[in-house]
Amino acid sequence: MSQLAEGSVVSGEVVAIKPFGAFVKLETGETGLVHISQISSKFVEKVEDELSVGSAIKAKVLSIDPSGKISLSIKALTDDRPQRSGGGGGGRGGRRGGGDRRGGPGDFEDMMKKWMKSSEERLSALAAKQKKGR
């Protein structure tokens, strides 16, 4: 049985599908989870839309926690390609369809927090303006 390491690419077979992701039996005999957010760069509404039991997959090992839970990502194998080193192509001009986004779930959460704060500030200002007008 080989030793898994974070960052390594592994092969396996989907053995179970749940609403939150797919369990994959690895060639090492261990089982890992591909969370629904790690299946594809595009939005995945249902795991079954992308994977099925018996599917052979390749995934990147994201983490192995102390209890032995293995977190896998299919998306990480495709997300690694578009990131280029060096200059050129930066900025928003060349994007189509938002497929070249950088960053992970943390970026989305930060964006949502900023939006919520801005929205609350606007609602407060509107309420104050309406109260003042009465």
From TrEMBL:
Any Pfam family hit: S1
PROSITE patterns linked: S1
Residue stretches of biased makeup (Basic and acidic residues): 97-110
Keyword Isomerase: no
Record keywords, A-Z: Ribonucleoprotein, Ribosomal protein
Domain annotation S1 motif: ranges: 7-75
Region of interest: Disordered: 75-110
One annotated GO molecular function: mRNA binding
Keyword presence, Cell division: no
Gene Ontology CC: ribonucleoprotein complex; ribosome
InterPro entries the UniProt entry points to: NA-bd_OB-fold, Ribos_protein_bS1-like, S1_domain
Gene3D superfamilies: Nucleic acid-binding proteins (2.40.50.140)
GO BP terms, alphabetized: translation
UniProt cross-references to SUPFAM superfamilies, sorted A to Z: Nucleic acid-binding proteins
Similarity comment: Belongs to the bacterial ribosomal protein bS1 family.
Function: Binds mRNA; thus facilitating recognition of the initiation point. It is needed to translate mRNA with a short Shine-Dalgarno (SD) purine-rich sequence.
Name of the featured protein: General stress protein 13/S1 RNA binding domain protein
Organism whose genome encodes this protein: Marininema mesophilum
